[in-house]
């Protein structure tokens, strides 16, 4: 999956700015071979900073490519270029003598090509240099670059590298300055970990690679939102073997449904017993975060049987019963506005009622909150969360519900 982050981050851990609120990755998952590619000047940092950084990434089970060959000449092998292309994130460690290395600079050109071509994330680390020195090739960093220019005497290459250095210096990054190096490395690893939305598979049985799972990252907080499509849910009588109850329809072929993130949705033909569940492992979500779960759906013309509320609930793996089931009304005729369109008086009236009402989203799907839960730290963020929507008491015939999926997003 493709996740892009740009602009500039300082040592205060300010998060990057981007052109949109969420960075969507709802397309099919890209088969990255590596989570991280390390680009660095060996003589400056190989045995110190990079060694410790690599160890920390490896300890977090983040698949990191490091070239252990000493830099020789200026030609980079095809295998090394391939490693860059197949990495989700490139970390560029800009140190005092970085700009003296044709090897480092040619890698940088390839990395920036991948940033443009495949939306690779590029994270610069300013190790003992100031971003302005890199951007304008000044100070000791500039002296190293000038030294290379004197040796090379190739203005065309120098201009390409100069533009690349300016571009990477303008991206979000981390500055060491006078900080504790161990803490500095820890923050980098946390940042990388938060941006790898799929580096730890949920379950090979339930979530094989290639499944359509939409992941987004908030531009300010770095928190992950995730949406499970209808195919990843457990829908009673909805496996496809009983099409008289539920049918699976290509979302692109329906002129009446809102645009979908996924290739197909589930449409209810006729049931009396409604039972839909979704499960997710907490470790795929952002740690130490309060999440809300939302059922995303629509209704086709002629729907019926949804005047009574359904029951929605959240259950954690270590809970026997889970949270209290809450009434929720799926009938969009009860309310079709957005949250922003509701006045304070209307919101108070909704709270006084005996159940939750649907909200129409900007993408024109309906949503209703199922509940909320907290994720733990990196160490104890284990176990599954089960989200349930059911109506099994008032057994009226129901038809016309279209299931898009269940979305989990930070609150």
Automatic annotation (TrEMBL):
The protein, known as: TIR domain-containing protein
For biological process, the GO terms are: signal transduction
* Keywords, sorted A to Z: NAD
**Record has NAD as a keyword:** yes
Coiled-coil ranges per UniProt = none
Q: Where is the TIR domain?
A: 32-196
Q: Which residues cross the membrane?
A: none
